[in-house]
Write a structure and sequence with these properties.
The complex is a heterodimer of chains A (260) and B (252). Chain A is 71% helix and 2% strand. Chain A is mostly helical and 260 residues long. Chain A has a two-stranded antiparallel ribbon with strand order 1-2. In chain A, strand 1 and strand 2 form a beta hairpin. In chain A, helix 1 packs across helix 13, helix 5 packs across helix 7 and helix 8 crosses helix 9. Chain A is globular and about 70 Å long. Chain B has 252 residues and is an all-alpha fold. Chain B has 2 domains: 40 residues, no CATH class; 210 residues, MetI-like (MetI-like fold), CATH 1.10.3720.10. In chain B, helix 3 runs antiparallel to helix 8 and helix 4 crosses helix 6. The chains are: A mainly alpha (260), B mainly alpha (252). At the A-B interface, helix 1, helix 3, helix 4, helix 5 and helix 10 of A face helix 1, helix 4, helix 5, helix 6 and helix 8 of B.
């Protein structure tokens, strides 16, 4: 296992410090040039955009998932059924789920066709190939990652705490925001990391739903390793992504949380 | 509030399920366009007759089967080792592999293979895809098997040793049968993540190892095609069935 995981990571770290070979691959001398290239405004913009997208996806997923997790946690014997319903679409490949949205959103897709048939619009709405479509794809793909940890914490929540809040005069909504939500902080943090990290490196969603306009860091890495053949620079980008993932994991562990 | 939550839940379930359901419904559409023109199995026939699709599906099955066998063996042994003697390094690299963005795992493996090719005269192809799949699915196997091991009473193994079994015998005849359902579930999970993967596979694949997700991706890039709806539906049904079986095994 160390072989399959640690060694490749070490090689990527080494590659990020080497120069670009004439036909792809890497050559000496050792250099920090690749990391300097990262400071280029163009790449910084892409980086910030990726951070922003991943953060937005995490916030939206958690916001959407919270009431659902609450519903499942309070639904007694049907809990397992409702949970499986959340997980079920998750087991279809991400690629297919992205394609399903392409099918709905494109100019001659179902939504535009129906709206046009209903006479509501004349020109198709530009639903596909923009930031919104990518965000939608990410939220759709990662929603279960928010529901599960939130449900796990809500499930363990002591119901007497809510009764106590009610006895002390809190209205249900007040109790929700002042008791339930704060107590869910560990679940919210776990969900945030589980969504933020993979979204940061997302490649498929931005590639298929974003078209050529929405380029995120994952697409740049893929491009450096394939078409552009600048492996050292792609490796430098990967190292930065890995560092962010590690930092977040480390922060989560300090909070004493199990992510898996 | 209760009713509000229920309505909300229905809306979210619709959001989760409708896109796939619609995709499946339109795979039976006779027309090439997004207008319903009657029921037909035309796109299924077309998909099954497409040589590129069939070949890549066979490749996918081959790769998933080999990767599953290897990953399940390695993962089960790793979980057992971790249970016997905890190792921060091993556990840490496990967590890491579960949270590393796919694209990073993919390029790391690609870089690793290229580096290893200096010593071995290999090329990217089936075997690199299989190795890559083993690398990323092992973590899932360990997590599933580990969960089962937490409920295993070590006294059972000690009893076997007292009764004269050697260590390997005790593992094979006492521990392994106990782990059976979890190992089977883990294998199913490894199979599904392997057969699903696009990002990592596309980076480490050679010309002879185009997989089904790669074909699907190439078709999706070219635009919407009803044949894709048919393939997606078939894949979703097969994977869904496998996951259901795996869940049954895990809970039994």
């Amino acid at each position: 296992m160390l072989m399959t995981l640690a060694v490749p990571s070490a090689i990527v770290c080494a590659y990020s410090l080497l120069s670009r070979g004439a036909y792809g691959g890497v050559e000496r001398p050792w250099t920090l040039e690749n990391f300097r290239l990262l400071a280029d405004p163009m790449y910084l913009r892409i980086f910030f955009r990726s951070l922003w997208m991943a953060a937005a996806a995490a916030v939206l997923c958690i916001g959407l998932a919270f009431p659902l997790a609450l519903f499942i946690a309070r639904s007694g014997r049907r809990k397992n059924l409702y949970l499986s319903l959340v997980i079920l679409p998750f087991w279809t490949s991400f690629l297919i789920r992205i394609y399903a949205w392409m099918f709905l959103l494109r100019d001659t897709g179902l939504i535009n066709t129906v709206l046009r048939a209903a006479g509501l619009i004349r020109q198709p709405l530009p639903l596909l190939y923009n930031d919104g479509a990518v965000l939608l794809g990410l939220v759709y793909g990662f929603l279960p990652f928010a529901v599960l940890p939130l449900y796990a914490t809500l499930e363990r929540l002591d119901p007497t705490l809510l009764e106590a809040a009610a006895d002390l005069g809190a209205k249900p909504l007040e109790a929700l925001f002042r008791v339930t939500v704060p107590l869910c902080a560990p679940g919210i943090r776990a969900a945030a990391i589980l969504i933020f990290v993979p979204c940061l490196g997302t490649y498929l969603a931005s590639d298929l739903l974003g078209g050529s306009k929405t380029i995120l860091i994952g697409n740049v890495i893929q491009n450096q390793f394939t078409a552009a053949r600048d492996w050292p620079f792609g490796a430098a980008l990967s190292v930065v992504l890995m560092m962010i993932a590690l930092a977040l994991m480390w922060a989560a562990r300090r909070q004493g949380e199990e992510l898996v | 509030m209760k009713r509000g939550l229920a309505v909300y839940a229905i809306a979210v379930y619709a959001f989760l399920h409708l896109p796939l359901l619609i995709l499946a419904i339109f795979s039976f559409n006779a027309s090439k366009f997004t207008l319903w023109e009657g029921f037909s199995l035309h796109w299924y026939r077309a998909a099954l007759a497409d040589p590129e699709l069939v070949e890549s599906a066979l490749n996918s099955l081959m790769i998933a089967a080999s990767a599953t066998a290897l990953a399940t063996t390695i993962g089960t042994l790793a979980a057992y080792a971790l249970w016997k003697r905890s190792s921060t390094w091993l556990a840490g690299s496990l967590y890491l592999s579960l949270v590393t963005p796919e694209i990073v795992t993919g390029v790391s493996l690609l870089a690793f293979f290229q580096w290893a090719f200096r010593f071995l005269h290999w090329k990217l192809g089936m075997h690199t895809v299989i190795l890559a799949h083993v690398a990323f699915s092992v973590a899932y196997v360990v997590v599933v098997v580990m969960a089962r091991l937490r409920t295993f009473d070590p006294a059972l193994e000690e009893a076997a040793l007292d009764l004269g079994a050697d260590e390997f015998g005790a593992f094979r005849r006492v521990t392994l049968p106990y782990l059976g359902p979890a190992v089977a579930a883990a294998a199913m999970l490894a199979f599904t993540v392997s057969i699903d993967d696009y990002v990592i596979t596309s980076l480490v694949a050679g010309i002879d190892s185009q997989t089904l997700p790669m074909t699907i991706y190439a078709m999706a890039r070219r635009g919407v095609n009803p044949m894709l709806n048919a393939i997606s539906t078939m894949v979703a049904v097969v994977l869904g069935a496998m996951v259901l079986i795996s869940e049954r095994l895990r809970s039994s």
